[in-house]
User: What shape does this take?
Amino acid sequence: MKRKVISMLLATTMVMSLLAGCGSSSTETTETDTAEGTAAEETVEAAEETENAGELPILGAGIYSSSDNFNSYIGKAIVNASNGVFQTNIDDGQNDQSTQNNQIDTMLAKGASCIAVSVVDVTAASNIIDKCKEAGNVPIIFFNKEITDQTLLAGYDNCYQVTSTGGDYGAAIQGQMIVDYWKSHPEMDKNGDGKLQLIDIMGDPGHTASQPRADYVKSTIEDGGVALDLLEEDTGMWDTAKAKEKMDAWVSKYGNEIECIVAGNDAMALGALQSVEAAGFNAEGPDGEQYIPIIGIDALPEMLDKIESGEVMGSVLQDAKTQGQTIVKMAQNLTDGKDVLDGVAFELEDGAKAIRVPYAAITKDNLDVAKSTYAE
Ligand code: BGC
Ligand code: CA
Assistant: This one.
């Protein structure tokens, strides 16, 4: 295979870093040790040792930022599913596209048989695809951050993406959960005006899911027959600390007038929880003296405890484990030249070269569903 030849040629200069990067055992081979053979023989030896040391193909995998909890869980799921199938480790793009580009260059130079990344910047997808093509048509699977320009994926046979279902990005489920709670808990309408006084904490505006989540949660609430009074809506950048900072200002401005807090992800919902708890709300759950229903998306393990204790009303599971397993299975198929969907439990979305893993509503009543998703 062309890629293998490239990696063998690179082996003399790269063998040490390659082996270190792949977590394989190191070898004694160096370029300067020519006592027992020519440099050329040593090159072949080094390449052979590389092949033997790393019998498994390399999956070049990366997430856009390790400070994003949800992405870190997908990374873990990829590593777990790669066991015995690929050598891999998860590069941290540090929320910087040029850092991630360098990481992808290195993965390709190491002879990765497939690349799987959540991009820092969705507009960089085309450049990343070009890198893969130039390296010998190496397959690439984008995940989490959706590439909405379908022509990019259509333009390269070896390109796919794995995300969660639908253009609403899970927010219709979230909105419906709020409607159901409103209908079953009349006390949610604290001021009795028949409207829901809502705060919406949005994700990073540069991210494909942020605006649709904000739009669909509100439209689903209204379509469900609940009139909305949107007190505040602003970005928390998917981030706990940033969401807390925004919420600190809002809770001191509105206090008990707030009837619900909806967040675009759990990291921000947890930031909102810290803020309201510091102001005397939620620590005792819905039966406590002061309570504001909070709802997020992802159903992260750290959120499940808060749902169990009643401090948070619910979340929407994004199935990181199934996404990671699906990515690895597709990568394996592409590496082995099989049909990309061989042994994959999902179909490609019509015209989208995308696998969509379903979201699910999570409350205190079905925490087990989310727990099993994150179990090793
Ligand atoms: C997740 C967020 C995450 C974001 C980052 C979203 O799908 O729900 O938790 O921060 O992706 O890419
Ligand atoms: Ca009200």
Summary: Residues 2-22 form the longest helix (21 residues). The pocket of calcium ion (ligand 2) is lined by residues 189-191, 193, 195-197, 259 (CB under 6 Å).
